[in-house]
UniProtKB/TrEMBL annotation:
PANTHER family: ACYL-COA DEHYDROGENASE (PTHR43884), ACYL-COA DEHYDROGENASE FADE28 (PTHR43884:SF20). This is Acyl-CoA dehydrogenase. GO terms for molecular function: acyl-CoA dehydrogenase activity; flavin adenine dinucleotide binding. Keywords: FAD, Flavoprotein, Oxidoreductase. The keyword Thylakoid does not apply. It comes from the Bacteria. Residues 6-118 form the Acyl-CoA dehydrogenase/oxidase N-terminal domain. Its cofactor is FAD. Belongs to the acyl-CoA dehydrogenase family. Residues 255-401 form the Acyl-CoA dehydrogenase/oxidase C-terminal domain. The keyword Flavoprotein applies.
Amino acid sequence: MDTRLTAEQDEIRRTLRELLHKRCGPEELRAALDAPAGHDPALWSALADRLGLPGLALPERYGGIGCPVTELALACEETGRALAPTPLLATAVLVAPLVLALGTEAQRAGLLPRLASGTLTAALAVPGTGLATALALTGDNGDFSAGGGRAGGVQARRAADGWLLYGQADQVLDGHSAGLLLVAAHTGGFARARTRLFLVPGDAPGVVRVRQTALDATRPQARVQLRDVHAELLGEEDTEVLPALAGLGGSVAAVLACEAVGAADRALERTVEYVGQREQFGRPIGSFQAVKHRLAEVYVAVQAARSAAYYAAWATAQESEGAARSASLEGRRREAGGTAGGLALAQALEALRLAAAEGIQLHGGIGFTWEHDAHLYFKRAAGDELLFGPPHRLRERAAEAAGLFGRGEVAV
């Protein structure tokens, strides 16, 4: 692995950081969180039109740039630094790869260019709190089911003109504003019943979407209700969904790890700036040995998490390139998702929580106020742990995938 960034990667990071510094400062961030969409549409247009972020990892034949997932992860490190509320994660990291991997050629040609240009945003609707399980981040998703009927979740049934979906998904990232919903539904009651993915326009008749109050306001969530909604099956009738979701887990974890590292690094920077200015007993509090030791621990944790996140992004890109020449695509990607990506995400989430907690403590009284941004970083750490973790489950899954525990043994 070559840890040096290429000239193109450096340019992506530099340009994106400059843009976010101008367009996503503290005031702009608060205004975006209060907007109906939960993000600034003008910032999203700038990210899409000027930098092409939504199509960064999509093939050129579908309007993308054709970069590996490494570049997308580095871009998300910068959006994580600014806690930028954008549909990038939901659209480019969760939905677009699934459409690319599972969709028919007509579906790819019709959807991917619009997703790559940012004119169409998308959201992955997984019922309940099962997103981490569906992506095989916290456990094998072989037994995952989208549910349905009285058990909750979303049920799919055949109709004369296609499929009808009925049910509810409660924690859909950017689900209230997405133009396209990719819904996981269970085809129970039929032969070969299983979980499948369906395409649903966000404004389709029978779709009710309500933005939820989330712990992390920078990552908007919605409750999506489907009441006999007409849907289009993603892919062919025999498309296997669960292996594809498990294969996606590695790249999602790597991107999230880089995003968390960016947030942790910025939280540390803000704290270092503050302790260099705040004086006590006639000297900056940053000159006290106890404060130096605490910040040194955070620095080591952030740098270690960055190394793990970069390796995970590189390894995921290498697995994807190798899988293109291998018949064992899903098996290779499932293993990658359960090891490097999950371990990197666990380490990054812990580093972010540590950096945010120390930032609040060392900012003193103002660190606990709603007006200060310190709490936003802590909520990002806690919110990501609820959605994609917690870290000990991520590590347990990685150990299980690596075969460290025999059948019947329990990881502690």
